[in-house]
Amino acid sequence: MATQRTVRRLQLAWELAQESRPWPQRAGEFLAVWRMPLSVTVVALALLRQIVAGPRPRSLADYWDPAVVIVVILLAAGLVLRSWAAGVVSKNRTLTDVGPYSLCRHPLYLGSFLIAAGLCLLAADVLTALLVFGPMTVIYAACVWREERLLSHCYRDAWREYAARVPCLIPWRLPDRLVFRWSYAVWRGNEEYRAVGLALSVLLAFGGWRLLSG
Questions:
Q1: What's the burial of 28, exposed, middle or buried (CB within 10 Å: 0-12/13-18/19+)?
Q2: Helix 23-33, helix 126-155: angle, nearest 10
C-alpha cells in the first residue's frame, strides 16, 4: 500500500512537471500531493536541530506548569478533531458537510495546526516553532487552495452553498445542527493512524531526550 502511494505520487509529480501551467500552480499541486512526507521531514529536521543545538523541552509530567496544561489541551484537541474528521469524510465520493465539516471546511488541517502548536510549545524553542510553522503554513495553504479548487469543480452549486455557510479554517460559530457520526473503518481507510503515530513519536523523542540528558 505504501509503495503504491509513493509510485502514484511520483507519477503525479512527473505529470505536473510536464504541464505548461504557471510554476506557482504546479508548485502548489506538488506541495499538496506530497504534504504528508514533507510534513514528516519538516518535523524531523526541526526536532533533530533542537536535540543537537536547542534547549531541553518542557516535561509533560510538570502538571503545575500552565504551558504544559495548554500543550495537553492543544494536543488533545488536535488529535480528537483530526480523528473525528478522518472518521467522517468520504474522500473523492461525496461532499462531506456534517460533523467537524459543519464547523469548518478543513478540520483535518486545523487539527494538524493545533497538534503542531502543542508540540512547538512543548519544545519551548522559538526557532523550532519557526522551522515547523513556516513550511507547514506554505504546505497547507497549497493544500487548501488545491482542495477547494477541485471541490468547487466537482460539486459546483453544492460547494458554493457550503463554502458560503461554513468558514474555511477557523470555526467562528456553532452550526444550527451539529450531527455526530464516526466510523473506525473510514478512519483507518483514511490512514489517520499516521498522524497519531507522528505526534506520539515526537512526544517519545522529547521524553527520551529529557530522560537521557538527566
A1: buried
A2: 100
Rounded distance between C-alpha atoms, residue 161 and residue 204, angstroms: 43
Could you tell me if residue 101 is inside a domain?
A: yes
User: Does residue 82 register a pLDDT over 80?
Assistant: yes
Q: Is the pLDDT of residue 3 over 60?
A: no
In a domain, 180, yes or no: yes
CB 58 within 8 A of CB 122: yes
The domain tally of the chain equals: 1
Residue 16 lies in a domain: no
In a domain, 14, yes or no: no
pTM of the model: 0.84
Range of the domain at 80: 23-213
